[in-house]
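Appendix B. One record, verbatim.
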Amino acid sequence: MARERYAGCVLSDQPTESFATAEDAWLWFIRCRLAREEGARFGAGRGDVARPCEPDDIAREVGRLYRGRILRPAHLKVLDIFGRRLTPPDPWSGDSPVDARLWDEALDRLSTPLKRKGIVS
């Protein structure tokens, strides 16, 4: 039996605004994850901007890409480290050029499925 395709759910009455880039979506996801770790609870329609997904949708997509060996452990490590800093790696400020390359690769590989689902425009 074929799997059903992703069909976004209505999270609020507000019109949704997709993310401009996969980097924006990733940093939003990390901010949500950090807030959740500090005890915040999420609900539809509470933010300033309605998004076309929940933070867990991005986490599931990253997990799917990892299980499919599209993202490697090095990609996940860089996404986590620089996501927690809430800024991409910058080789000019002392970050490793390898980290910057892994960051770009990971977000490039993540952008296609997020665009397909309407999370990134």
